[in-house]
Design a protein that fits this description.
The chain has 330 residues and is an alpha/beta fold. It has helices at residues 25-33, 48-61, 77-85, 100-108, 120-129, 151-162, 178-186, 196-199, 208-216, 241-246, 309-329, and strands at residues 13-15, 39-41, 67-71, 90-94, 112-117, 133-137, 143-144, 169-172, 191-194, 220-223, 235-238, 260-266, 269-274, 286-287. It has eleven helices and 14 strands. GO terms for molecular function: nitronate monooxygenase activity.
Length: 330
């Protein structure tokens, strides 16, 4: 047991596709250059030309392979065409089914398919579709959370399900350090996927206040009050002072009739940000950033610094190897 690579990468560490544009070319390239799996996030609307630019810009920053994450709940057919045409190393899909026909199409283009799931039944469908790997997202994860099961119970079940097929299982949700990595390996996972830890890096496109809040605050909440109009699914957020004071929103309300509290350019398009919107503040966001949503997983209390993404990967690999060796010698 150790920090072995997966899917042709040096290490079994995946940087989650952080929306809407937090995992841009700079972060993805830094992760890739460190030997881990960096994932761009495709826009939540059809933007094939813009996505092609993102992919090509990333290639100017790294010669290593990387991938793109796609949310299947949003329009994505044209974006997917670009991903296959550009022949990135992998496409990560979530929030919907990705049937065998599309998996075959990706394989014909030389692109691996990684499906993120949050329910055991979803894992069965992904297995039958012939995906190359499965990310198991536990309830501990930050951002939009698919299921209610924790990693400790869900990962072993999925590992048992796919063990005869040789499909690698990647654990996601609340993992930020070597202890989480080692625990995931002990559960039978082949690697880990981290989002919150990579938001708090120098290369992430998150707003500085968002990054600093991840270092300073320790608590998260599972809620459904942000972004109801655009994507009404539960999510885990950082318990900021704004959330502590305004953590309830009547079921019939959403962000559409709330005041505009800021502005941002997101994937090339100018956007107003309303109170209770589901859009996290990126580096170019202006306005009342403290009242904007900040997604975070349950492991946020273990994040103590903002460092280069390559340093995150290096620490994880070295400290996990050391920890496993200590356990074996105990």
């Amino acid at each position: 047991m150790g920090c072995k690579g997966i899917l042709g990468f040096d290490y079994g560490i995946v940087q989650a596709p952080l929306g809407p544009d937090i995992s841009g070319p700079e972060l993805v390239a830094a992760v890739a250059n460190a030997g881990a799996v960096g994932l761009l996030r495709a826009p939540d609307w059809e933007a094939p030309d813009y996505l092609r630019e993102l992919i090509r810009k990333t290639r100017t920053l790294t010669s290593k392979p990387f991938g793109v994450g796609v949310v299947l709940a949003f329009p994505h057919k044209e974006n997917m065409k670009v991903i296959l045409e550009e022949k990135v190393a992998m496409v990560q899909v979530a929030w919907g089914e990705y049937p065998r026909e599309l998996v075959c199409e990706a394989h014909e283009a030389g692109v691996k398919v990684v499906h993120q799931i949050g329910h055991f039944e979803e894992a069965e469908k992904a297995k039958n579709a012939g995906v190359d790997a499965i990310i198991v997202q536990g309830h501990e994860a930050g951002g939009h959370v698919i299921g209610l099961d924790g990693l400790v119970s869900l990962v072993p079940r999925v590992v048992d399900l796919v063990s005869s097929c040789g499909i690698p299982v990647i654990a996601a949700g609340g993992i930020v350090d070597a202890r989480g990595y080692a625990a995931a390996l002990a559960l039978g996972a082949h690697g880990i996927c981290m989002g919150t830890r990579f938001v708090a890096t120098l290369e992430s496109f998150a707003h500085p206040l968002y990054k600093q809040s991840l270092v300073e605050l320790d608590e998260t909440k599972y809620t459904n009050i942000f972004g109801r109009s655009r994507w009404p699914v539960p999510h885990r957020v950082l318990q900021t002072s704004f959330f502590t004071e305004n953590g309830q929103l009547p079921d019939h309300e959403n962000e559409d009739n709330k005041p505009i509290i800021g502005h941002a350019v997101i994937n090339g398009i100018e956007k107003d940000i309303r109170l209770f919107a589901g859009t996290v503040p990126n580096a170019r966001t202006t306005g009342d950033v403290e009242r904007m949503v900040m997604y975070a997983g349950e492991g946020v209390g273990l994040i103590k610094d903002i460092v280069p993404a390559g340093e995150v990967v290096k620490r994880l690999v070295e400290e996990t190897k050391h920890l496993i060796q200590q356990l074996l010698n105990a």
